[in-house]
Write a structure and sequence with these properties.
The protein is of the alpha+beta class. It contains 15 helices and 22 strands.
């Protein structure tokens, strides 16, 4: 589930002052150097050349702007790349390209989309001022560009303690069948001072597992130094808003860590991790013959002709296609302009009607073409709710949570007071681990078969190919993801639940581990990338290398 984009500030605590000069020294080479930096709050004061600086301190200094003057407007440079195109065509296909280099190494390249900057700024303007750092979110493309440089491209990982050189280069680009990039229009550099981040050292040691966890404790070892290194990064806010890490090995509790105010009893909003629970409850309902099978058609549960945009293609939508995000409805949560994007659903007073009113996509094959479609999981929840005794929530409690001895949890609801299967079910991190271990056990818990082994196999198998959320060569199962982590040249395939903010339940296939990460970085664009980095560089090495 999604929410409005909040302020994301690079969280480095530093102590050094920066020097100030009227104009930075020019390079002794013949390279162009006509881009300058200032640390002025541009909303309060208009920066002048007297404000240009040679250095800034990350992040004692709250403001950072760049200034450059072109010899001719951008449109003239775009014309050189493709003289045959009209002005409108050039502006539709091209813009500025910004390159960020740290200590001479290229870290981030941004080809601005056509909406960045006004037409006037591209056709007549010579002097440009671009705010990059600001202590709160501003509606300016430069602020988001800096965020992507730092958070998504790894700027925060290369800007370690010490002094660094940041170089910014500006070029024109044009994207037709191929990408055309012109000569440098502006270039400049500045020294970045990064001091050691002050943290509470008591947060670093591996946390002692408290009694009454409900699990047997593992006596196995792991690389404590790796986990302490991870704890340090969390304390430094390198990995932001991490709330819990739980590792189960061979059905025993190996690691249990909590951060940022949460503890074992905290109910954590896992967002779309809750989608996987819908798959589980559906599998149980099929096992008990309340629903025929996942191959049942949508038309078996709804009079589809009574909804808007009916077509015969809707008659072919199966529960399986909803489970595998391949139903063919015109809904794509990765595209904010999509008619069926989940953000368009939440304000309505009937989410099921919203979903079933959507038209079908003519170019999508049902059961084959993956498109992340939250509204389809709402439909599944509604089908379960009206098919099982006493409704979805009561059924899930009796058939899933009670056998797992999960008593402390909370559902969110749809406008029709049905359990919200789109996401948002809240459990303790240690209980999310029980859910993951249930799948690791092939559906068994304490000797009792809660889910059929066949349903578990289907759920975590490679049902539909997808490359959503940056997962290259990934596959989707029945509301479960699949991917491979590679550590020191060895592959570790894993099925996992995933929710906005970096929430994960990892169920490894060839090693005896279940790993839970709970995180509340709901509006952080690199939350999932952070979870991956934690797994690849800290958690997995710690538990498989065992130093």
């Amino acid at each position: 589930m999604k929410s409005n984009y909040l302020v994301l500030i690079v969280c480095f605590i530093v102590a050094c002052n920066t020097s100030k000069s009227s104009t930075p020294k020019k390079s002794q080479t013949n390279e162009i150097e006509n881009l300058f930096f200032s640390k002025v709050d541009f909303k309060k004061n208009k920066p002048t050349p007297n404000d240009y600086v040679n250095s800034f301190t990350l992040n004692k200094d709250e403001f950072l702007n760049i200034h450059f003057t072109l010899n001719k407007p951008l449109i003239e440079s775009l014309k050189l790349l493709s003289p045959g195109l009209s002005q409108d065509q050039l502006l539709n296909k091209g813009n500025f390209q910004f390159s960020f280099l740290v200590d001479g190494k290229k870290v981030h390249v941004e080809n601005l989309n056509k909406g960045a900057g006004t037409i006037d700024s591209k056709t007549t303007k010579l002097k440009h001022m671009v705010p990059l750092m600001y202590p709160e979110q501003i509606d300016f493309w430069g602020w988001f560009m800096w965020l992507k440089f730092m958070k998504l491209s790894g700027g925060q990982d290369v800007l370690v303690e010490g002094n660094h050189s940041l170089t910014i280069e500006v070029r024109p680009y044009l994207k037709e069948e191929t990408l055309k990039v012109g000569a440098i229009l502006a270039k400049g550099n500045i020294t970045i001072e990064v001091a050691k981040i002050a943290i509470d050292e008591s947060l670093i040691p591996v946390q002692k597992i408290q009694p009454d966890s409900g699990w047997q404790l593992s006596k196995d070892s792991f690389d404590r130094h790796k986990i302490e290194a991870l704890n340090r990064k969390i304390a430094e806010k390198r990995f932001e808003n991490i709330n819990g890490v739980v590792v189960i090995k061979e059905n025993k509790l190996l690691i249990e860590e909590y951060f940022n105010g949460e503890d074992r009893n905290s109910l954590h909003n896992s967002r779309s991790v809750g989608k996987s629970f819908a798959s589980t409850v559906l599998g149980i309902a099929i096992k008990e013959n309340y629903i025929n099978s996942e191959n049942a058609f949508l038309k078996d549960f709804y009079k589809l002709k009574s909804f808007k945009n009916y077509s015969s293609k809707k008659d072919s939508v199966t529960l399986k296609s909803l489970l595998t995000m391949s139903s063919g409805f015109l809904g794509d949560d990765s595209d904010y302009n999509s008619l069926g994007n989940e953000e368009n659903m939440y304000p309505t007073d009937n989410w099921v009607k919203f979903s079933l009113d959507l038209p079908m996509q003519k170019d999508k094959t049902i059961g084959k073409d993956f498109t992340y479609f939250t509204a389809g999981v709402v439909i599944l929840g509604d089908i379960i709710h009206k098919s099982v005794p006493e409704g979805l929530i009561s059924y899930a409690d009796k058939k899933l949570f009670e056998p797992l001895n999960i008593t402390n949890y909370k559902w969110q609801y749809t406008p029709q007071k049905v359990g919200n299967t789109a996401g948002g079910i809240q459990l303790r991190a240690i209980d999310f681990a029980k859910y993951g271990q249930l799948y690791k056990n092939k559906g068994k818990w304490n000797g009792k078969q809660i889910i059929t082994e066949k349903w578990v196999e289907k759920s975590v198998s490679k049902q539909v190919s997808q490359a959503y959320a940056g997962i290259k060569d990934g596959y989707y199962g029945y509301l479960f993801w699949n991917k491979i982590y590679t550590i020191n040249g060895k592959d570790y395939p894993v099925s996992f639940c995933s929710g906005r903010g970096g929430n994960k339940i990892f169920i490894f296939k060839n090693i005896p581990f279940v790993v839970v990460i709970t995180s509340s970085a709901y509006n952080n664009p690199n939350a999932h990338a952070n979870a991956d980095k934690m797994m690849k560089e800290y958690i997995l090495p710690a538990i498989i290398e065992k130093k």
